[in-house]
Specification:
Helix content is about 35%, strand content about 25%. It is globular and about 50 Å long.
Length: about 250
């Protein structure tokens, strides 16, 4: 997939295309009357975990939504070099409060991209759902109503929905929110396994331990890129103090 708005000021090389799953240049995006992202230039490396780090309101969720195709950039250039549409797991959803869905039905929605909401799921679809439920450790919750679950259980169900899509790019907004330490460890191990299985993972997080476990970090502040690189390079004490100081 390729979205182009403005020609880049620097050339694209074959090496960039092979090593970057997503690349954006001069990326600006936001909401009507409220710009959020301002002139972002960065790459999301292929087959790696990338953590988006920054204070509330820095643009992490907006960037994920742009990468997912939920928000269209206002200007700039966005290149997807993956083979499949991205799977996006947002931080909040009202699904469980508005529809009487079971956990399994919620995860099955992850197969709608291939099958559509009105066609019967195939054996391959059911196998993908079973696999996602098992990997998140919620196979025993399949018949429970989503609205009856704890916040942590619901979070795991939504991550399973994203996993069931079978994408090669998984976008997660605060995946560990509401999870106990054991569940957070399970999620961290799962993300590592997914990369080994051929998935590029991007997660927005406030958890600095999770960010330091990522392969690379993009640090945002006030909608701008404040740092990019390995966690040990960009998540230093001095850098974090500067990023979180009042504007």
């Amino acid at each position: 997939m390729k979205i182009m708005f403005i020609k880049p000021t620097r050339p694209t090389t074959a090496t960039q295309d092979r090593t970057a799953h997503v690349r954006f240049v001069g990326l600006c995006a936001g909401y009507p009357g409220r710009p959020v992202l301002r002139q972002l230039d960065a790459e999301i490396p292929r087959l790696a975990t990338t953590a988006l780090v920054g204070p509330n309101g820095s643009g992490k969720s907006t960037l994920l939504a742009v990468l997912a195709g939920v928000i269209r950039p206002a200007s700039g250039e966005l290149h997807h070099h993956g083979e499949l549409p991205p799977a996006f797991v947002p931080q909040r959803t009202a699904t469980g409060d508005t529809l009487p869905l079971t956990v399994r039905q919620t995860v099955e929605m992850g197969r709608w991209g291939e099958r559509g909401p009105w066609r019967r799921l195939t054996g391959r679809d059911h196998a993908a759902v079973d696999h996602a439920l098992d990997r998140l450790g919620i196979g025993d919750l399949g018949t429970r109503q989503l609205g009856e679950l704890s916040g942590g259980q619901r979070r795991r169900a939504l991550i399973a929905q994203g996993l069931a899509q079978g994408s090669d790019l998984l976008l997660l907004d605060e995946p560990a929110t509401g999870l106990d330490p054991e569940a957070r460890e399970r999620i961290g191990a799962l993300l590592t396994e997914l990369v080994a299985d051929g998935v590029t993972v991007v997660q927005a997080t406030h958890d600095l331990d999770a960010a330091r476990s990522a392969d690379t970090c993009l640090v945002l502040r006030d909608g701008r890129l404040a740092g990019a690189g390995r966690p040990d390079q960009v998540l230093t004490e001095s850098a974090l103090a500067r990023i979180w100081q009042p504007l």
